[in-house]
UniProtKB/TrEMBL annotation:
Pfam families: Rce1-like. The lineage of its organism: Archaea, Methanobacteriati, Methanobacteriota, Stenosarchaea group, Halobacteria. The keyword Transcription does not apply. This is Lysostaphin resistance A-like protein. Keywords: Membrane, Transmembrane, Transmembrane helix. It comes from Halobaculum roseum. GO terms for biological process: CAAX-box protein maturation. Residues 138-234 form the CAAX prenyl protease 2/Lysostaphin resistance protein A-like domain.
Amino acid sequence: MTAIAERLPFGPRVGAVLAVAGVCVGALLAGLVAILSISATVRPLVAGADAFRVVSGNLIQVGFAGFAIGYLAWVSEVDRFVSVRIPTRGDIAWTAIAALGVPVVGVAGAAALSAIGLPEPMPGGGGRVDLLSSPMLWPVAFVGLYLFAAPAEELVFRGIVQGRLREWFGTVETVLLSAAVFGLLHFLVGLLTPAVAFDGSLYWGLSALVPGVIWGYAYERTRNLVVPATAHAMSWTVPFGELLPFV
């Protein structure tokens, strides 16, 4: 892949940026296939089950996982893009920083977006199960979100995307560019989501820059995908918005 980038007429750095944009689009297409396939086959059978509702908003990550597996098989460089180990004390500290940093900074980001006329979109849907009041579903959330969905997404957008960018850019550039790709994903998802429209898609894309930067920087500091994956899963399961006033 590096040799290909070096031969591109517009330079390897531009080639790397185009490559990770392609990764984003490829992962999104794989995610759409997963959503449509599961919605047509599995959802009708289990739609009323609370266990399915816990993970129903994360069907796209099934496609992300399939895309990542296919990509890694194609490039045959698993060690280059998959960096995982048992968390050290430093990793745990960065996980906490990443998990808390996103909602704290996100409050200011949401206010700024609202101030420029981009209110948060509220697409229809059944909503998630209240996990705090449903402890029997915690194992489902742990397996579905912590062990699968979040790692699948982080493998693509931190592991593969940042792994590609890191070859040609410094840490700051790598983090900012990967965050932009992460924002692009959420913008495109918004465009494909009913009742979100362009303004809502732009809101999703811009608001994704905050976790993109924070999780991306945490990954660059630790080089352990467990760190951003855990922080990412916590953003789905821990009600930081309700807890922050008490911190």
